[in-house]
Write a structure and sequence with these properties.
Blueprint: E1 3-5, E2 8-14, E3 20-22, E4 24-25, E5 38-43, E6 48-53
Antiparallel strand pairs: 1-2, 2-4, 3-6, 5-6
Length: 56
């Protein structure tokens, strides 16, 4: 999974850790090891992300 800006891949952020980490431009896909619904927080100021799995 990656984050992209304004429906374009010109500006995109990936990362190599889950469930949280630091994203970087053109980084790798963030591997999500378990299917489900997640609350995702992306902080563009410090370029961090966090996934929190929701109860089904």
């Amino acid at each position: 999974m990656k984050f992209r800006c304004r429906d374009s891949w010109t500006i995109n952020w990936g990362g190599d850790t889950f469930p949280e980490g630091k994203g970087y431009q053109d980084g790798p896909d963030i591997e999500i090891p378990e299917d489900g619904n997640y609350h995702i927080t992306l902080n563009l100021t410090d370029k961090t992300y966090q996934f929190e799995k929701l109860n089904d």
